From TrEMBL:
<dbReference type="Pfam" id="PF00535">
    <property type="entry name" value="Glycos_transf_2"/>
</dbReference>
<dbReference type="InterPro" id="IPR029044">
    <property type="entry name" value="Nucleotide-diphossugar_trans"/>
</dbReference>
<protein>
    <submittedName>
        <fullName>Glycosyltransferase family 2 protein</fullName>
    </submittedName>
</protein>
<feature type="domain" description="Glycosyltransferase 2-like">
    <location>
        <begin position="4"/>
        <end position="130"/>
    </location>
</feature>
<dbReference type="InterPro" id="IPR001173">
    <property type="entry name" value="Glyco_trans_2-like"/>
</dbReference>
Length: 279
């Protein structure tokens, strides 16, 4: 059975839509663990009254994404989970997603599997995996290079996001939990999957397993929506800022091969300092 771990803080409408899409899965071989980090919008009552089958763990209001996910993972491992999936609450799951994850897990039982991401507003693919080249400091986006006829099955990548990420227990046994100390919110999923890859685990995007997301609802998109000095500061230094310089530095020093660190840092700083105004 897959244990699906979903950290939440408010936004109960998204949580409800996510859980309803899980109820509609063709394969019901999963259990849902919600980590509610102090929601004040009625999330707790909604979960209790409408989704009694869901396990709810309570945070103290200061977990953020990584610590919340780790709390759910610890619980799942204590229950004997062999498969864990991390998921965000602003995800709507295609009805066959869990079935397709099981299907390809049987082919690659120790691999980490991500999902093909579609925009919930128009159903167009927006994320299909990336391959990072440390030497050139470039990222190849698979959606830009894969012909439509090849957008199926598994495709190898260098890292994966945590929304709809299937992780076998053996990965946790070997490398532990996510690094909540260095990466409390953003980049923790990319860091974890890079770490898993260095430890010998394969990473794939499963193009047969689809999720729908709301990209405009991300914290970074909202920060970019209004180009002000305050938002620029948040972009670079806020815990939810996509250009957070501290997180980027820690990620690079931990994951980048040493010969490429200086160039990767210089290039990355420039992109974060100036790219904010170009998007």
């Amino acid at each position: 059975m897959i244990y699906i771990v979903i950290p939440v803080f408010n936004r109960k409408e998204y949580t409800k839509e996510c859980l309803e899409s899980l109820r509609a899965q063709t394969n019901q071989g999963f259990s849902v663990v919600i980590v509610d980090d102090g929601s004040t919008d009625g999330t707790e009552a909604m979960l209790r009254d409408e989704f009694p089958e869901v396990v709810v763990l309570k945070g103290d209001g200061g977990l953020f994404w990584t610590a919340g996910v780790n709390m759910g993972i610890r619980y799942a491992l204590e229950q004997g989970a062999e498969l864990i999936m991390t998921m965000n609450n602003d995800v709507v799951v295609d009805s066959d997603m869990i079935a397709q994850m099981y299907r390809w897990h049987r082919e690659k039982p120790q691999a980490l599997l991500g999902a093909l991401e579609l925009d919930a507003s128009n159903k167009k693919p927006i994320f299909g995996g990336e391959r990072l080249n440390w030497k050139l400091n470039t990222i190849e986006h698979l959606l830009h290079v894969l012909p439509d006829a090849e957008r199926k099955g598994l495709h190898p990548v260098t890292h994966l996001p945590g929304r709809g990420l299937l992780i076998p227990r053996v990965v946790f046994d070997r490398i532990g939990l996510l690094d909540q100390k260095r990466f409390p919110h953003y980049i923790a999923d990319y860091d974890y999957t890079h770490t898993a890859r260095r430890a010998g685990f394969e990473l794939f995007v499963n193009y047969d397993a689809k999720i729908l997301t709301y990209p405009e609802e991300s914290g970074e998109r909202q920060i970019r929506s209004s180009k002000t000095f305050k938002n620029y500061y948040k972009h670079l230094f806020d815990i939810k800022g996509g250009g957070n310089l501290r997180d980027f530095t820690r990620f690079t020093l931990k994951n980048c091969p040493p010969p490429y660190v200086p160039y990767h840092l210089a290039n990355g700083y420039a992109r974060r300092l100036f790219g904010y105004f170009l998007k």
